Structures are given as C-alpha cells and as structure tokens.
C-alpha cells in the first residue's frame, strides 16, 4: 500500500503526467490498479497516460475497462472521447465511429465528441456528413460576429453542400 488515500495517489499520478513524467504516472496507476482493480477512475487515468506517451494501442483496454466499471459523467465523457480518438488514430474507423456515437448518444450536447466524430467520418471518406457536423458546430459555437451574421445561411447549406441551385 502506498502513502495517502487512493484519490490523493490518483492526483499524484495526474501531476506526474502533467509534469511530463508520463512513464512514472503509468507505473503508479498500474500499481493502484493492482490494489483496486474495480476503480474505474484509475483505469481511465492510466489510459490517458498511455495515450499521452503515444502508446495508443495499450490505452484501449484501460479505456474500455473504465467505461465498463462506470465513471462520473465528466470522466465518462473523456473516456468516450479518448477511446474513440484512439481507435481513429489507429485507423480503426468503424470502431471509432461506434464509440463516438455511443458517447454522443449519452452526451448529446458534448461538442468535442461531435468534432472527433466528424474527423472520423472524414477518415471514412464520408466528407459530406463530416462537413455538415463541422459547419453546424461552427454556427452554434462561434462567437465571431462575421460567422454569426451568416449563421442561418451556414446552417441551411450545411446539409446541402453538393446541391447546385438552378435558376
């Protein structure tokens, strides 16, 4: 057993990762997983550290376990995004799409999930749908006055980019 509560030790691992000592954070999280294998938060943080170290494939089982065990809403959003993004970077686009869709279904107002889903659609050669999502996100979230002055037009054309208007 280490020193401090589990929550304090998780925070130590996060601080190690934030300071760039990612391998040490992974080692700490793996030790904590041995002590508390059903703690979803530890699995999530361990996945995040693997991703940060560029070990995406190794991050996957930690993300999946964290989601299965159950996370608080904020961490669950991050886990769906991290897992979907990881599958996307590994070229596993169909799995990435399903993970991100599951996250969007659970958290329909989470714009970053929509953004990563649109990137995955682009990778899957579904450019029209990807652009539609991005344009709608831009119209909904931009504070830029020049974009907001054209918001209705952007939203109107978002799903009709390939349509040619005849006179």
Describe this structure in words.
There is one protein chain. The protein starts with 5 loop residues before the first helix and ends in a 9-residue tail after the last helix. It folds into 2 domains: 71 residues, Tetratricopeptide repeat domain (Serine Threonine Protein Phosphatase 5, Tetratricopeptide repeat); 89 residues, Serine Threonine Protein Phosphatase 5, Tetratricopeptide repeat (Alpha Horseshoe), CATH 1.25.40. It has 167 residues and is an all-alpha fold. Helices cover 75% and strands 0% of the residues. The chain is built from 10 helices and no strands. The chain is elongated, with a radius of gyration of 19 Å. The mean pLDDT is 94.
Q: How would you concisely characterize the structure shown here?
A:
The chain is mainly alpha-helical and 167 residues long. It has helices at residues 6-18, 22-35, 40-52, 56-69, 73-89, 93-106, 111-123, 127-141, 145-148, 151-158. It has 2 domains: 1-71, Serine Threonine Protein Phosphatase 5, Tetratricopeptide repeat; 73-161, Serine Threonine Protein Phosphatase 5, Tetratricopeptide repeat.
């Amino acid at each position: 057993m280490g020193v401090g509560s589990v929550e304090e030790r998780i925070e130590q691992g996060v601080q190690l990762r934030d300071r760039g000592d990612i391998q040490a954070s992974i080692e700490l999280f793996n030790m904590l997983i041995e002590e508390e294998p059903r703690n979803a938060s530890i699995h999530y943080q361990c996945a995040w550290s693997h991703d940060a170290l560029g070990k995406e494939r190794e991050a996957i089982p930690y993300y999946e376990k964290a989601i299965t065990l159950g996370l608080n809403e904020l961490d669950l959003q991050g886990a769906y995004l991290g897992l979907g993004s990881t599958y996307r970077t590994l070229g596993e686009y169909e799995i990435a799409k399903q993970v991100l869709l599951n996250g969007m279904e659970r958290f329909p107002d989470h714009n970053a999930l929509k953004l990563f889903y649109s990137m995955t659609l682009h990778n899957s050669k579904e450019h029209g749908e990807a652009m539609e999502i991005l344009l709608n996100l831009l119209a909904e979230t931009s504070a830029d006055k020049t974009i907001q002055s054209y918001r209705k037009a952007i939203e109107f054309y978002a799903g009709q980019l390939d349509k040619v208007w005849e006179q």
